[in-house]
Each structure stands twice: as C-alpha cells, then as structure tokens.
Amino acid sequence: MSFPEDFLWGAATSAFQYEGANLEDGKGWTVADERCQAKSQIQADSSVASDGYHHLEEDVKLMKELGLKSYRFSISWARIFPDGEGEINNAGVIYYQRLIDLLNENHIEPIVTLLHFDIPWALIEKYEGFVSRKCIDAFEKYCRTCFELFGDKVKYWLTINEQNVMVMMADMLGLKKDDPKLNLKFVQCNYHMYLASAKAVIACHEMCPDALIGPCVSYPTLYAETCHPDDVALAYDMQDIMAFAPMETYVNGTIDPIVMNKWIKDKTVPEILENDETILKAGVADYLGVNWYCTQTIGTTSKNGSFNIGVEIDIKKNPFLEYGHWDWSYDPKALKMALKECYARFRKPIMICENGWSEIEEIRDGKIHDSKRIEYLHDHIEQMEKAIDEGVNLIGYQHWSFIDILSSSQGFDKRYGLIFVDRDNFNIKECQRIKKDSFYYYQTIIKNNGLGEENGKQ
Ligand code: BGP
Q1: What mean pLDDT is predicted for residues 110-118?
Q2: What is the pTM of this model?
Q3: Which domain holds residue 179?
Q4: Nearest CA to ligand 1 atom 12
C-alpha cells in the first residue's frame, strides 16, 4: 500500500503570517497583530508579512506550478467582521471569495482554518475574548457567515488552530501575564473554545452537509528524559493533558477525566451549563487535524517551567537527536509513532496540517539551496508512507509552509517556505518570490504521489 490516489498533497499558511495588509480594506485589529507588534523587530510584524494580500494571483500560479492538490489557509475573522461580530466587511469577503475561486479554478482544494491565533481585538476589549461566553456567540456567528458565503466552494474546514497552545499563553488569548486570575481564565478560555469549536462543527454539518470539519491540534511527541518511572509518568501525563485530552474532547465530545480532576484540584472548574454536554457531543469532528514538527524531551530537574500545567518541567536536549537553529529536534521516525498513536486512540481520518523545517536562509546565485528541508521532507514522507502501510488513515499532508511567512514568534528570520520571500526583518523590499530547491523536490513528490524511485523510495 502507499499514498491513496486522492491524497491531499498540500501546503499551508495562516492569515496574519502571510497576508500583511493588517489594517487595509477595513480589516480590524487582532490579538495576533498585537502580539506581532509587541515582538516586532523593526518591520517584522503583521503589517506586510509575506505581502500575500497583494500577491494573490501570483501565489496561486505558483501553487499550480508546484502541483498542489490542496492549500490550507486561514480566514482572518477581523477581515470579515472588523469588530468581531457586527457589520460584515465586504472587502474582506471579496478577498477570500477571490482566493477560493482561484483555487477551485486551478483544482486546488481549499482547506480553510476559521481561527488561527487572531481573535479580533474588539472582542478582547468588550468581553476579554474567550473568557466570556459572548465570544462563543460571536465565533458562531462568524463561522455561520463563512459557511453561508463560502460553503458551496469549500469541502475541508478546520475550526481552531492549536487551541491547546493558545490556552497556555496569555498573550495569544489577549490576557495579561500578571493577571491574578490567569489560571482560571486559561481554563475558561479552553472550555469556551471547545464549545465554540463544537458549535462551528454543528453549524457546518447543518449548512454544508457535504463538507468535513475538524480541529487542528498541536502534537509534539514527548519523550521522558530518563527511564526513571517519575520522568516517564510526567511525560505520559503531559502528553495526555497537552494533546490527547483536547483530541478526546473534539472527537468524542467529552472532557477528559484527567483534565476535569486537575480543574477540581486547582479550583479552576469553569461554569458548566446544562446544555454544554449536548453541544460537545453533537459537535464532534469528522477528521483530526494534527500539527507535528518534532519531539520534545522533558525532565523535572530544574525549575524553569515551560508549560502551565502546575508542574515545573524542563525541556531537555535529547542526546540521540540533531537540533536546528531554534532547538527544534529532527526526529522523523517519531512521526510514524505519533500518527499510529492518534489513529489507535481515535480512529478518525488524520490530516497533517503542519509539518516543516525552519532555517535562516539567503539567496546564492539567485537560488536558495535548502537541502535540509529536502531531507526533512523525504524522511517525514517516508514515515507517513510507513504509517499508511501499517493501517493509519492519513488523508493529507499540508507542508508548513507554502511560502516564507512571518514566524509566530521569531519574525522573518525563521523561514519555513518552499518559496523564498525576498525581505528581511529590517527591509521589506519588494517581497519578490523565488522558488527554493525544495519547491522542485516537493513538486516531484506530488507528481509521483509519494517518494517514487528518483526520490529514494526503497
Ligand atoms: C504552529 C503554528 C503556526 C506556525 C508554526 C511554527 O504552532 O500553528 O502558525 O507558526 O507553529 O512556529 P514558529 O513560527 O513559532 O516557528
């Protein structure tokens, strides 16, 4: 067995990282804009990003040349509703309409994320975002509007990107780090986002019966630093809380008992209304979107806690692995393990919604020789193929990223694209597009529906 004929070979971006034009044509300010501005190194914020908003036709042409079967992008909620819930912004509707039409004309399946880190800022000011149930209503209205506007042209939807990461980072939720009620608010946002996601699923099933919709979960596989039972138990619990508990809620509509017990122990149980369970149960996902880049090795030996789960843990270097510039590990074999684990637990079709390798890159003789990304693609696709052979129902692969985009935390130096965008943190230049070596490599993969002979299939 190998990749199915209709396998969705794709690539991905998100609105605030790709579009730019963050205040153009009526778009409202978002949490992502605020975060990028706060972290910005000179111009490396969301004002220009990859200038995708002004390169639409050119970029879709490049997607076509690459041979993409699918393109995952996100709709910026505040481009449709600048204040999150009031009047529709027609210019925003026209932009996404044009993108979706161009994709369909070129036989590229649009995979649309409804929320990718960019909650409209107005909802933070009015309701503290997802701390309030009012934000669930606003999200439902926005999703219903998207299904109404684009539902006849989009088959694959994703509700919320990496809710499991957002609910550990105050600034991603529009909250203040020193808020004395931060832990309670994290839980409220988490619970309310589960409900929001379920409501989006219910609306999608009602309004677009032929479409498929799911969440997008961040799933770094965790290793224990040693085989000491305490370390192993910590890694096991962390993996549960971080990845499997959220998947459980999206896929089965129940709050994982480990999570509920933790809320009770921490005295952070959110308000649970009578109808909530029915909503969660009715809004279960059709497929599981998974963002998988690498493994993380964790231990308990120091106090530099990185995760907000009430345990002080430390991210360690795994002596058996190679690491990239930003200390992300290179561990392709773990991808097969991760896919098998997800499939064994949940038995839902899986879509890899993000997977990729970042580098600092520069143009040499008009080209970008990104050999490490090629190796990464090869090694991870090989493991995907093995996972399929071993029975996993993997339906697609959205490489992160289609084109160089603004990193969610490291400006424009951290490049993931198959296409180089000629700009840097300090100089925006013309944002000229230059195909990297990996563009041609991935083109062959797609053409062969897998590694094929020339790419080293054994
Ligand atoms: C995921 C996000 C993406 C992307 C990616 C890489 O968590 O969904 O938006 O940014 O990680 O992360 P970074 O840009 O921080 O390297």
Answers
A1: 98
A2: 0.96
A3: 8-218+237-290+329-448
A4: 408
